[in-house]
Amino acid sequence: MIYALDRPQLKREARAILGKARVSPWLVALLYIVLVTILSGLSLYVSGSLVVLLRENSPSMVLPDWLLRPLFFPTWLIAFVSIAVSLLSNVLYAGWVLYHQTVRRGSEAPCSTLFDGFSFAGKVILLWLVVVFFVTLWCLLLVIPGIVAAYRYRFALYNLCENPEIGIFEAIGMSKAQTRGFKADLFILDLSFLGWLLLSFLTLGILDIYVAPYRTQTDLGYFRVLKQITGVGYLPPEDRPQQSSQPQDPFGPY
Question: pTM (2 decimals)?
Answer without folding.
Answer: 0.87
